[in-house]
Amino acid sequence: MTADAPIDLPVDSSINPIGYAKPVVRAPGIELLEPEPRWKRYIYGVIALLLSIGFFYTVMSYWVPAHGGTDQNGYLVGGKMFAQTLTMRLSPIHPGSRDEFDPHQFVGRMWVGAGLGTPDERYYPKYPLGLPALYAGLLWIASLMGPAWGLWLAYGLSPVAMSLAVLGSYLLARRFAGSFGGLLTAIVFATSPVSLQLAINPNSHAAAVCCVVWGMYLLIGWWQFRGVWRAITAGLLLGYAGTIRYSEGTLILPIGLVALFALRWRDWKTLWQAVGLLAAWAVPVGLLVLYNHFAIGDLTGYDPTNESTGFMLGYGVDNWETMLRQINTNGLAQLFPLALAGLFWMFWWNWRAASVIAAWIVPCLLIYTFYYWAPDGTSIGYLRFFTTILPALAMCFFWLVSRLNIWAARRDSGGASLAVTIPVVVAAAIVVSAVAMLALDRAWRLEHDAAQTANQQSWSDRFLRLSTADADADTDTQRDARIQFDANRCGAVALGVAGALVALALARGRVVVPAVGAGLFTGVVVAIHLTNALPALETDQSTQYQLSFTTDAIHSVAPDGSVIFCQEQPVLNVLQFVGDYSLYDGNSFRRDWVQNLPNADPPDQPQGLDPGRRDALFKRLKNFSQPALDEQARRIMQDALMANRRVFFMLPARPNEPIPKKVRKATGLVGKEKNVRLPDIFARLCTPGRFATEVVSVWPGYVPDLIVPKVNKPRGLRPDRPPDPQGARHAIELIEVTLAAPGSARG
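-> structure tokens emitted (747 positions)
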């Protein structure tokens, strides 16, 4: 028997008619469903592949290569530093100097310090090395293809990883729930607001869930069929997931259980493969521990912030309801209790398989239920911690459905033939759609006046029309009528599909009732998911697009090596990755801000910002007066200029500020020459006679106009389109600072 050969165990030969795939051999301790026909597996496999491609296309429609989050800054900039120096070390150096530490330079909030208070003070992301190493690899590849590729490849990692996770969730669930259950698992996971929003977010969750899902798929495959490469690949993937997110280190529990259940003491091949599985998991985890020890001197990057000890029973008492409610709404809508029921029932079916799945799900639930940081609300800020177990939870529910389906099939008394079933199903779909369209159209006409309903054509004439002739030429009333009709048409089609499924159940008998019920329930879950996810995706896209527009405008003017003062942290987070700048947010040049540093969270409490960084900065700057701090900023600018490095300030343009004629002409903005009222930091630092200033770039920022919905119109999920698609505009300007000419009295 070869290493990759299935285990030779008896299989019921009565369920292997011609046209079926080779019977799946059941390994000790794990029982799978009856084998499916090859054509069925191929068809469902193609559909799952198309689902993954469609998911990728959808999320890329909302994708923007920019993100201003502090977490994202840690991962991306850490990857950039690792690509350049093979370490994530960030050492702020005073402009114009080779080794003088600069305490004022911007460092993201998610970075922890080492050598604090010394001339060798340096910073590392508190996050593990796994995701930054992936970003570093992509940046190395981009260096061979061109500078622009680095940004696209780095920000493109999450969409690709989440799309692969969708496909992997189908393959994994198929082992337990069959092809139909596996497809529904993938659909539910793909449409979850958590999956959709994290797919366009360059943080750790998309890469982590990709490694976990494929690792578990290979782990279960090794349990079934053995094979040294399955064991090693599964161990590496699950171990690497622990280097992306520390909490995924708990996956050693399902690994250990599978190794124990699959072990046969008289079979040396099984023993060595189990050892290889565990060793493969230990390699990336061990390398991470060594890196953390030598880089930051701690086991994890969360030790300096006390977050590695931020787990208490009291937090669980406060968080349990938040956890249950959020997973059951934006995580897996209406599915969470049923998934837990499926997991419990699985112990009755096969306690070994259930133990492995529980060892995957339960530790994650417990860890983040007892975690100190659990914000409530409608966002996915807390839900993202449970991303890697969402496929497992969905799989548990659809496994339960598959068992009900088997139970119904064994008690089937027969139903109508396909010759009768197909016409009945088609007729039901047409009749239900038509009745639903009539009802929805009638309800809409009753709610609106004659002037509005006059724009609504006959429903039979428009039902099959996919678009109007010229949408831009429509009036607002006509546009509203068309949008409402399109919504009615989608609703009628959905009800028609539901009617067809009900007709299928009635025609074929109870054998299809579990599958039809699962399909209908999945449709409801998907509708809730998309209703909650799409507005959030639109908002996120708008925010990141404006951020990308701003950073592109700065990067097009300010060359690498420039010194940039900017008081918007999201912009700084992105600029630190896309360019090679010395960045300053200006806070450390304010004495009131410095003196308030000790008033933050107690240093022994779990918190996001490293308290050691805060204390070291306070000790460095506490004795400086406001004029002395201002002079330190001027010295930074002067030393940079003397070293032939350019200096810029990014500021919001106020209505009374002048915009140079050449800039107004290039951007189409309006501006009047009035006396300049400079922002506080700019006015303090750019003193006349020492520095000269010039506006070198101005670009618009867009703020959507919110319109109050009409009284007789149901409240929508998002506001109407404003009359001006650009909305209310405000300007942002980039000011360059140079040394003033000798004898100059004005900037």
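Strands lie at 111-114, 122-125, 563-566, 582-584, 647-652, 691-703, 728-739.
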